[in-house]
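@channel sequence for tomorrow's demo:
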Amino acid sequence: MDRTQIYLREGQKKELAMIAEEEEKALAEVIREAVDQYVNSKKYSNKNYILESSGLWKNRTDIDAGKYIEKMRKETNARLED
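structure tokens (generated this afternoon):
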């Protein structure tokens, strides 16, 4: 584990200290958990989901991609016109 010095606003430190006390954890552990949640939220952003799903249907023969996209566009346009 690497030691890192950070600056927190007074309110942030108080809130984190309250959480740490409630959960009977060290302040550093609460901060590590918060950082993990933040990193995971960024790791699994919409952009990543889009990139990971690219090519999922490439081997499917039961769907005509062009017709499917055209149908979706027509439905979207109809909703937008309303």
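heads up for whoever presents: The mean pLDDT is 89.
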